[in-house]
Amino acid sequence: MKLLLAGLVLLLIVEINAEWYTFPIEAVQGAWDMAQAYRDMRKANWKDSDKYFHARGNYEAAERGAGGRWAAEVISDAREWSNGKSGGAGDTEEDQEANRWGREGGDPNRYRPAGLPDNY
């Protein structure tokens, strides 16, 4: 119940421009895109690919619409906040730049490391 109430309040705060019924669907789909990018990053285990997967996850989520953009921003900010709290804040600003680049529709391949297999 508290989660539902928090979600409704959040919807009012972000001033949704989309139809009320598409936003939650887009948010769930965007969260799925972010999770898929994370799974691919773990599976690829490729040196210097972190920024690429950040940008790709945000890009794909944002392509879903306002809900996807919102989910990408919330997930990205939460992840960077938790990294900062656990002492891993070394490249937080660079990660956030890649996150913003992807959310704003920039090509994730800007961050693609050389040699990363094409299936990513």
UniProtKB/TrEMBL annotation:
<keyword id="KW-0345">HDL</keyword>
<protein>
    <recommendedName>
        <fullName>Serum amyloid A protein</fullName>
    </recommendedName>
</protein>
<comment type="similarity">
    <text>Belongs to the SAA family.</text>
</comment>
<dbReference type="InterPro" id="IPR052464">
    <property type="entry name" value="Synovial_Prolif_Regulator"/>
</dbReference>
<dbReference type="GO" id="GO:0006953">
    <property type="term" value="P:acute-phase response"/>
</dbReference>
<keyword id="KW-0011">Acute phase</keyword>
<feature type="region of interest" description="Disordered">
    <location>
        <begin position="81"/>
        <end position="120"/>
    </location>
</feature>
<dbReference type="InterPro" id="IPR000096">
    <property type="entry name" value="Serum_amyloid_A"/>
</dbReference>
<comment type="function">
    <text>Major acute phase reactant. Apolipoprotein of the HDL complex.</text>
</comment>
<feature type="compositionally biased region" description="Basic and acidic residues">
    <location>
        <begin position="97"/>
        <end position="110"/>
    </location>
</feature>
<dbReference type="GO" id="GO:0034364">
    <property type="term" value="C:high-density lipoprotein particle"/>
</dbReference>
<feature type="signal peptide">
    <location>
        <begin position="1"/>
        <end position="18"/>
    </location>
</feature>
<keyword id="KW-0732">Signal</keyword>
<dbReference type="Pfam" id="PF00277">
    <property type="entry name" value="SAA"/>
</dbReference>
